[in-house]
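In response to a reviewer's request, we include the raw inputs and outputs for one of the modeled complexes. The two entities were modeled together in a single run.
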Amino acid sequence: MTKTTFTPRDAICGSAEETTDFAPLFNQDGLIPVVATDKATGQLLMLAYMNAEALAKTIETGEAWYWSRSRSELWRKGASSGNTQTVVEIRTDCDQDAIELIVEQTGPACHTKRKSCFYRIVKNDGGEFSLQKVEDA
Amino acid sequence: MTKTTFTPRDAICGSAEETTDFAPLFNQDGLIPVVATDKATGQLLMLAYMNAEALAKTIETGEAWYWSRSRSELWRKGASSGNTQTVVEIRTDCDQDAIELIVEQTGPACHTKRKSCFYRIVKNDGGEFSLQKVEDA
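The model returned the following structure tokens for the whole complex.
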């Protein structure tokens, strides 16, 4: 068990926007969406979720931990693939219901071996949709 | 009512990762998280949510529409502030449960008048957390 705890949401002083208290807002499933971006390039790498324990472990270890909704378990990013994320900076947004992780990404971020998970563009051909893969994503 | 519809999730051919069918996965509330990034700089601007209608309106109009969870209504980004988002590209991720909007942002993206909603860094002083504002965010 981790000892890291965050400010309870109902205990923040002032508005969520301007406070310097860190009071992350987890959703009804106890999760918060996390956007990982690349330190070197600023590129959007992936979107995943953390519960409070994953966020605490990320802060304590300096490596990205997430909550797998499909497997219902904590996972250390890259634990099996080796494609770890070293956390350079953690940010939160105006209403503190999302997290940005600025990371040094080892290898590709996506499990499909691509640098980013966002490797397909939505194309609209008169209401007919398709996805076009980006070669260098 | 919009006429735009997407491929039903259970009708996609092959895996969500490699298909060229656009079959966005909305959560149990009918929402999908959307990350807006700046076309010119790649900077992460904000994270918000769309329902199917907001996504359809975004595609049809070329301007970003979201679903406000607090107000339970569709909103066109910038409708009151003027800080609209012109959509340059729409992407989806490997498992098609998140959207990236690459936008030309008019004015600041954040309602606090900052360029990005992610303007605070989480600081950890021996287990005591605080948020430090980034001056140029």
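As requested, we also summarize the result in words. The longest strand of chain B covers residues 85-92. Residues 9-111 of chain B form a domain with the Ubiquitin-like (UB roll) fold (CATH 3.10.20.810).
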